[in-house]
Design goal:
The protein has no helices and eleven strands. The protein is mainly β. The strands form four sheets. A four-stranded antiparallel beta sheet has the order 8-7-10-11, with no helix packed on it.
Length: about 130
């Protein structure tokens, strides 16, 4: 039994074919497909819905549609950053409710962080409060 190491496998996908000979000089081949990457950044998605229970300016921001592109390799969203008008905060919650102070056009921005510490691009939407 020998220790085998590989080098030169490039980032993304590479296939390595191994050939093995036994003591009877019989040969067998098999291939291994390697998927190599540092991290794939997550994607932020959100929707906005008027709640209006405690105030006519109460809204829910739902970022639960956000995802980590490398989820099949145990990637996951760990933090949500919300910017509501000029108020910015981070939370582990994918849904938040917020009461804006007045009517008018308000910008809502969201970005998400994955378990490797990488942030998504920020996405934004304008909402007109009446």
């Amino acid at each position: 039994s020998e220790l085998i190491s590989f080098s030169g496998v490039s980032e993304w996908q590479d296939q390595v074919t191994l050939t093995v000979k036994d003591s009877f000089n019989e040969e067998a081949k098999f291939s291994i497909l390697f998927t190599v990457f540092r991290n794939i950044a997550p994607v932020a998605l959100f929707s906005v819905k008027k709640i209006g229970v405690s105030s006519p300016y109460e809204y829910e921001v739902d970022a639960s549609g956000s995802y980590d592109k490398d989820a099949r390799f145990n990637g996951k969203i760990t933090e949500y950053e919300y910017t509501l008008a000029n108020y910015k905060f981070s939370s582990p919650l994918s849904k938040i409710r917020y009461v804006f102070g007045s009517a008018g056009q308000k910008q809502i921005r969201v970005r998400v962080k994955d378990n490797n510490g990488d942030w998504s691009n920020q996405v934004s939407e304008y909402v007109v409060l009446n």
